[in-house]
Design a protein that fits this description.
Structural class: alpha/beta
Number of helices: 8
Distance between the termini: 28 Å
Number of strands: 17
Strand content: 25-35%
CATH architecture of the largest domain: 3-Layer(aba) Sandwich
CATH class of the largest domain: Alpha Beta
Radius of gyration: 21 Å
Strand order of the largest sheet: 2-1-17-16-14-3-12-13-15
CATH superfamily of the largest domain: QueA-like
CATH topology of the largest domain: QueA-like
Order of helices and strands: EEEEEEEEEEHHEHEEHEHHEEHHE
Number of domains: 2
Helix content: 10-25%
Length: 353
Amino acid sequence: MNKDLLKSSYHYELPEELIATRPAQNRDESKLLFFNQASGEYKDLSFRDIINLIPEGALLVANQSKVFPCRIFAKKSTGAKAEIFFLSVKPNHDNAYSCMIKSSSRKNIGDIFEYEGIQFTLSSKNTDGTFELTASGLVNSLEEFLYEKGSIPIPPYIRGGVSDEEDKIRYQTVFAKTTGSVAAPTAGLHFTEDVFKELKKRGVDQAFVTLHVGLGTFAPVKVDDLSDHSMHTENYFIDEDNTKIIQEAYQIGRPIIAVGTTTLRALESSFKQLSQGAFLANEMLETSIFLHPGKEVRSIQGLITNFHLPESTLLMLVSALIGREKVLDLYNHAVTKKYRFFSYGDANLILLK
């Protein structure tokens, strides 16, 4: 069987001490591993060096989705502890909120969970293992309540998933705008307003998509044959102004550099329509695109990304660009040079031929 279609082919060894538990002191001081596909060259640099690496006149496209503090630690009316992880701040047609619930006790319809004077009642169970909660006692919206009382949902491999006040600032991009993600589009965490300003001097413009990152981004691949893997679905949209900018870039042949895998998923999902000028701006769309070797990527000329978990769909996505063996070689180089991995880790810039 084609090794590129085997999950086990995407394994690499990573010492635990290389998993970043805090970001670099300053956003743009993380390390940068630069790979130029045309020359085959690797360079070990600082992220600020990206200012001179992005091609002049390129368009940088990033995901402006905003992480919300979706985690609360509640108690059932019985006294049992429960962790509630809200998946959206928008209620459904029954005025209930989708969530995940972690509790040592059974979860039954009608259970009441209390937190900071608010009562959340379990109204239904979903077939995918998630739940619906109705809220009683909210003065304002659930979104406002969570921004005041909730915890930022850092991944479990970062300090056991226990966040603090610093994470509310650092686990968020400086350009975050639209609330909806339960995990940060982490490639964007390295950017500062100063970096954008310096890029602008070289004719590099910005455009934004909005793709709300769901838990499915981190869901493990459970089959060894990638042909049998069902990708999670995520919602995305591109507003009218950004649609025009991206469409014009395609039409005149500007290099497009995606900031992060979520941005690439949105661009690739709508590439045909965007490039032909038929894309409908402001329309909420869904994508379940699964990019891996054997799938052609047409929408970008470069990608800025972090270093991803072994055997993850994100590692497979990067492999769709430059090949699995080259990606594993890059990652082994990063391990040898002691780059920091995952959400708070260092960055990788890949420029395609």
